[in-house]
Amino acid sequence: MSDRDRGSRILLNGALIVFGAMSLFPLLWMLSASFMATGEATQLPPSIIPHHPTLEHYRDLFGRLALGRYALNSALVAVVTTVCALAINSAAGYAFAKLRFQGRDSTFRVLAAGLAIPVQVAMLPLFLLVKSLGLVNNYGGVIIPGLASIFGIFLVRQYALAIPDDLLDAARIDGASEARVFWSVVLPTIQPVLATLALWTFLATWNDFMWPLIVLSDDRKYTLPVALAGLVGEHAQDVELMMAGAVITVLPVLILFLMLQRYYVEGVTEGSVK
Amino acid sequence: MSGKGRRGIAPGWWFVSPALLLIVVFFLGPVIAAVGLSFTDVDLYALADWHAARWVGFRNYSRVLHEPLFWQAMKNTLYFAIVGGPLTVAASLGAAMLVNARAVRWKGTARAVFFAPFVTTLVAVAIVWRYLYHPRYGLFNWMLGHVGVHQIDWLGDPRWAMPAIILMATWKNFGYNMLICIAGLQNIPRELHEAAALDGATPWQRFRHVTLPMLAPTLFFVVVVTMIGYLQLFTEPYVMTQGGPLRATTSLVLYMYEEGFRWWRLGVAAAIAFLLFILIVLFTLLQRRISPKAAA
Amino acid sequence: MIAGFAVSCTGAPTAGVELRVWAFGSEGEALAPIAREFEQANPGVHVRVQQIPWTAAHEKLLTAYVGGALPDVAQLGNTWVPEFSALGALQALDTLVARDSMAVPRGDYFPGVLATNVVDSVLYGVPWYVDTRVMFYRTDLLAKAGVTSPPVTWAQWQGALAAVKKVQPAGAFPALMPLDEWAQPVVFGLQAGATLLSDHDTRAAFQDAKFRKGFHFYVELFRQGLAPALANTQISNVYQEFAAGRVAMYITGPWNVGEFRKRLPDSLQGKWATAPLPGPDSAGVSLAGGSSLVIMRKSPHQDVAWKFIAFLSDPARQVRFYEKVGDLPARRSAWDAPALVEDAQLAAFRTQLGRITPTARVPEWELIASRVAQAAERAARGRETEDAALAGLDKDVDAILEKRRWMRERKP
Predict the structure, then answer these.
(1) Of A235, B127, B274, C404, which has the highest C-beta tally within 10 A?
(2) Global pTM?
(3) Beta carbons within 8 Å of C129's beta carbon, 6+ residues apart
């Protein structure tokens, strides 16, 4: 190996470490500050590592401030949304890719155009609609409007286009109904994209802020991000406490992502480049 | 496409109908209603008694367009999108090239590290950044202090608030585009680089004359898509600055939210939403027009 | 207009009632223990206090109104009362107050604050705590400038400021009136006797001679270099500026009494004081701010709700609330408590609370107020003449009030 190669290798890996440190720094500081004693994070010079690590803020959050309830709410909303969205969008995506029916292409074009409309446009009438359905301050109002996703349908369709027709026809010749074909042939084949869609939906739902903020008015029903934003209004000066709250909010999605990142990465690459 | 199709009432409709029904009821329907709403003066009085609502034609639009705050919000939004979009993609490209470099180890770990900020909850990390930006105790000013930069009031100074939000958004989002850039880089044939290297091209020249031109279509697509996403800025200023200081971080969506959900001037808010929509359509058209040329 | 809510069920059983109460910020936090006391005094009643951040309070209330999810009792900023009464969300309280005049005696409230809760002669809220603005000033700097007592008239005030400017460090300004606050120009207008709006509050009246007089006084302070043309966010730290003598007078509210004690260096404690606001020819009026307690019209627990409000209105409890959160009591008898009498900095507030005027009681007020600030800023920065700024303001505000005019014409 030449000196130049070694030099550039050190340079590149050094740059990678610096870049990575910048990327992780805010998250690491959040974690570290969450274990600091009250007031330690607002000292000069700042402390980077807690002097006397404490769990008091976590105890406070789960005890006095009942953040556990919000975590459960968030989990409930995210899981229900993910399961239902998976069923609805995969069926539609598959049909748009592989089934023939009248008006399919024109319907699909309308949906494609809808992709360019920002969700904020629909928000005000949607709120009035949700209200007239009696779903304000109800998880139904949080979950149902976001179930069908044009983006999700696109993702599944893109992937399902690659299913060989022979595979489907073979099952049909064996006398399988369309539902059966979907269940036992299509779904197993498109499993990777389903994992992507599931992870995508779960993260988006867990992280969503604006819509639950508008729909939920009873604080016992808040999701984690809404509760956290409420907390910061009252406890802005309690840095360490807020950091512990941020950790509780971020950690579940971070862990889930690290476990399933392969699918996520593939999904993003498939969906946008091809 | 399937050769066999027609058999009874097309089963395809059964498969798509739940999704279509939901999209029509909860998205397209409200969008159409919003168009209608933007031509009315539905407000607080009308919510109490629907007879107090009137058709006002284009009055909401002309009012909004004469409103200095709207133009301020437009300026802020464009500032965020036009500076933040390219900056984010530049960071993405840098990260992608590092991860893609042959000499680099731990590629998988590096990719996960760069991507981690993207999956985090915006509300939570916005709170974290608020403290990092604290003028007195924040780590940023402390670090800058060591290189002789005087205390910056990141979120309190109208000149710095938007750059601060752009910086945070860049950090949060560059990982996503990095994945797309990596895929793009991997599509560049190795031979091109090798040929250039044989000709004695420096790494910078190879980047300038091989990587960039080959990646241009992808980059352009990514920049425009990122900018379109950035036009919908809301949560960052809502949590970090409430649109201040001096309205320096009030985005169009935040402005719409305030008009609609704070003052309940629903007609005005719907008009703002549509003006935002037009802006997004313009960006999309721009992408469609220029994209094929850049690819050619 | 008085709603027909019958007050028949005074002795009705209250078993199994859950009373939902919304309160904001630190008030919400401090309310919980008081609610526990109420529960002990009223067996069978459970009070659920929901604490809402101030920044989200207004949206939260309105979404809850539209979504039909309002609580039974809520704290309302008193400028919001007209808005929610226009929505028909609030219960009229006149009969209840008349019935329970022992627990909630009208005469014991500062009249200016009580007036903010009256819309079209109907009472919709009971003042909970009050808030007004007075002058905070550096006694040592005024003394150095030869000003022995705080100014009472505008002329004295201008004179005092000019004298202080001479003893200040170079480039400093004696008074601080942040340009993004509507309070100052509005207060000066009110002091000159302006009504702000006219024709049953359906037309702007900012070009009226009285408002013009106050507006002129305001702009003149900037023109003469007595106040800096800066907005709140351009002033890095008011307390530091005040401590350094770069600001000698600052018009602000009761929350800053605590902040000044906490944030000014020890060497400066004892060198600052508060004083009521000057007026054109004699002591002037100030704003009537604060929060009220309201009962939602749709609440099924009207009687318990009223009991709870009466409970919170007890002077002794108001004093405790002051000790805990620093909110000034709305009842005058509460001000005789030692905790309030002994605090010298509060005397100015007590005097000022006797001279407060509500702003226009229309739902559009907050929007109008933001326009007043914008017009005042344009004039103070010298971008427009006073006449042009006020003409523009009238035009803007008339447009905002168009709907209100139409509503009035429709139902005579």
Answers:
(1) B127
(2) 0.84
(3) C27, C290, C291, C318, C321, C322, C327, C328, C329, C330
